[in-house]
Amino acid sequence: MNKFIIAGAASVALLAGCAAEKAQQTQGAGTALKSTPASVIVSPNDDRQYATFTLPNQLEVMLVSDPAAEKSAASLSVSVGLLHDPMTQQGMAHYLEHMLFLGTERYPDTKGYTDFMTANGGQHNAYTWLDITNYMFKVNNPAFDEALDRFSDFFKAPKLYPEYTDKEKNAVNAEWSMRREMDYFGQFKLARNLMGEHPANRFLIGNLETLGDKEGSVLHTETVEFYERYYSANIMKLAMISNRPLDEMKALAAEYFGAIENKNIEDPTVTDKLDFSVVGGKRIHYVPNEDVKQLNIDFTIEDNSDQFAYKPNRFLSYLIGSEMPGTPAYQLKAMGLISNLNASASPTMYGNYGSFSIAIDLTDAGMQNREAIVATVMQYIELIREQGVDEKYFSEIKTSLNNRFRFLEKSDEFGYVSNLAAAMQEVPAQLAVASPYYYEAFDADAIENVLDQLTPERVRIWYISKNEPTDSQLHFYDGKYQVATISEEEKASWQQAPQIALSLPAVNTLLPEEFTVKTQPPQDKPELVIDNNDVKVWYYPSQAFGEQPRGEMTVYINNGMPETDAKATVMTALWTDLYNLQQSALMTEAGIAGMSMRLSDGNGISLRIGGFTDKQPELLTTALDALVVDVNAQNFAQAVDRYIRGLQNQGKRFPFYQAFDAYNNIIREGNFNTEQLIEAAQGLTPKDMQAFMQVLLSRNQLRIFAFGNYDKADLNNAVERVLAALPDERTTVPYDFRQYWQPQPGQKLVWQEDLSVADVAVIDMMVHPEPGYATRAAATVLRGHFRSAAFDKLRTEEQLAYAVGGLAAGIGDYTGFAMYIQTPVKDVAAMQQRFEQFKTEYVDMLGALTEEEFAQLKTSVLVTLKEAPKNMRDEVVPFMTDWYREKFDFDSEQQLIDAVEKVTMEDIKQFYQHTMLNDEAAHVSVQLRGTSFVEQPFADIKGATKITSLAEFHADMKTQ
Ligand SMILES: [Zn+2]
């Protein structure tokens, strides 16, 4: 179903929902494992109870009992997916996934499931991939029984209403329409097109062209047949987590899932063989929508996922992707030919075949030397064949995985069960938790077997840029291409001695040697522990995870540059880009050692170091030593090129993402139109950059936030190191924070923009006149109800979009309430008009809310707000948010909880009146017009100010 969670949580990966994000983590069927452990292997840090068993209907179950869990969750996966679609109804597996949400025998209401989840603090979703369909939900503990009853009925007696069969194909079509312009999907489609008769060569998502009644095929009939044929208990896996004891959960599993029919079907698999003399040895020229300069060396490999315990793909991608001195990534970066190199494998990408892929981002200089870059990588693979299959790398990877597994943290219940139900389809249940970390032995044969497939016969080399020759056009996706055969001459060049000196990676020096935990007295909130003229340090030891030898330190060099200075904005971005590029070897080494480091920009620069604390002092020193980046004419021009293309490529993203960007740019100072940033970037020189770095490092407000396993001496040391990295002559300037717009009564702001992609996106945001926690609390209670009402009406009933809903959003201390949509079927003005109608229609729906339903909504919101953090990241995020905004009471979360406790039914009705139905409420309307609607009008908002220049608007904008 892939509903979106907005408010920043929606990412491209999430949106790729039905697809991409699951492709990378497939594992094997476990046949190569020497012995399967008797019980579930979990981290020593995991004190939850686990059990696995098989119900009489052959449904395999994994239970996790966690007395501390405040939400319960379940996920059920079916071992059938897009590869098994009937060719008469391509997209069927995905489309059926959508249909199961629309009512069952016991719960026939089409919106009953969504409403139930909203009322009980729930979350639900599903995804479909080549060989799996996976459904999952999470809900407040007391609602778990009923949730299981509703959920399990999907797999026993779905309604599959014929009238919604006809409707829901539009939602699938809208989902396809969103992805049609995404280069990932176009390239994946082409990769499969080139596989001839292999079942991977098909359309996956489905649209109005492939789903529907046609001669010899009726959609509804085929939907029922597909369900009847494949939805069988013996190819399903179930994972559940809750606060109940295992025996109770076992009874629940039997009660609700024991009656799913076992049709004793064979696990659907694909066995078709590829002919590499036809499929391999190709060069593909591809013209994408985004302005990228990429080279992808892609080998088609046999599915070796059953060797997950020996990780041959991991071993090889570790060596090929290494950033250590002497490796291709290191050497080619040093020569200014590439900016990124990533090696990865996905062994079941095409069912019984997978892909081992080396993806490279090129500079212009690299574009001129593509054949030489390919030859370098091929020659390095040869070097690995000769010298690289060495147990020392196994030991290093194993240590890295062991360390991570030993201190593995809990994650959200929703994602956890979803991953478990997927993993159980691939590995023995006992290893479903551990398999990503489980490295049983060094297996040279397994590695050499993969190396034997990294050959010219199996390679496809992708040249991806705006300037490729093309002679063909994809169907169903944007993307032009041309396929050529790689010449024998070029292949022969791969056998020659390398022209660039290549060597295998040296050993990692940052692996932790000790896991000492520095016990600290309890603290209610972060404290300012060092405060002098030069630097301020806040410290907060983890209250919930004091046993973790981990910490996170942010060094924030906040600047005093004027918010109106576009050049300063551009230069901090270029600085972080060059820094992260020049330090990629260090970052990779730190990553393997269980640490992280990253420089990011925003009112200056901030360096964040995280992970195991043992070697953090060394990491911090090295990271700081390089803070002033090397700038020369070539690398500066390349950084500017990446920056400008990055800005331009934003315009190729999903329209509704672009709409939220436009909205965020309006409500906060310090933002600029894309053209203004590009102009600023084009006017800069390496000299400007060098001068800028000196100014920022010598005039700033220096702040550090340390969270986790540190003591006072660590903090003092860190301060010394940071000060040593900055100029001796330093001036402290006031802290600078980009302020939020102060909404004025009756003020209406409109942003209208023509897109270079097809769909329309609209955000209609109304701001409550009163700032403060009371209005924020009312909005927080109301939003779930409003969101499901909007979703039900505009998507399930009217089928206007795939991405649609309502939301509440903070604007500094103010609160706005909004509707948003991305639609392929309505123009901007018509969509705005439909929003206006819905705002009025909703009054009756809100009026029908009973006191009991209201109480339930409120309780659910409180359960979610009060949920204890599951890991260190969860624990620190609210404090960091307050820290950036200088809310040094660190109590924003608590204030909101206190305010929600006080919210009444009358409050939420008043809130609705004062925002959505209030002509005097401040209004922000974002209207993005896709290419399909360029002839239709924008929406006319009476009395509105049309913003054309963000810089001009912000120059006069009143701020909070
Ligand atoms: Zn979908």
From TrEMBL:
Against Gene3D superfamilies, the record matches this protein to: Metalloenzyme, LuxS/M16 peptidase-like (3.30.830.10)
Q: Which residue intervals define the domain Peptidase M16 N-terminal in the entry?
A: 61-195
What keywords appear on the UniProt entry?
Hydrolase, Metal-binding, Metalloprotease, Protease, Zinc
Pfam families documented for this protein: Peptidase_M16 (PF00675), Peptidase_M16_C (PF05193), Peptidase_M16_M (PF16187), PqqF-like_C_4 (PF22456)
Zinc as UniProt keyword: yes
Location of the Coenzyme PQQ synthesis protein F-like C-terminal lobe domain: 786-876
Q: What is this protein called?
A: Protease 3
Q: Does the keyword Protease apply?
A: yes
| Enzyme class, UniProt record, top EC level | hydrolase
To which protein family does this belong? Belongs to the peptidase M16 family.
Q: Report domain Peptidase M16 middle/third positions.
A: 405-680
What is the documented function of this protein?
Endopeptidase that degrades small peptides of less than 7 kDa, such as glucagon and insulin.
The enzyme's E.C. designation? 3.4.24.55
Sequence ranges assigned to domain Peptidase M16 C-terminal in this UniProt record:
225-401
Kindly list the cofactors needed.
Answer: Zn(2+)
Q: Which organism is it from?
A: Alteromonas gilva
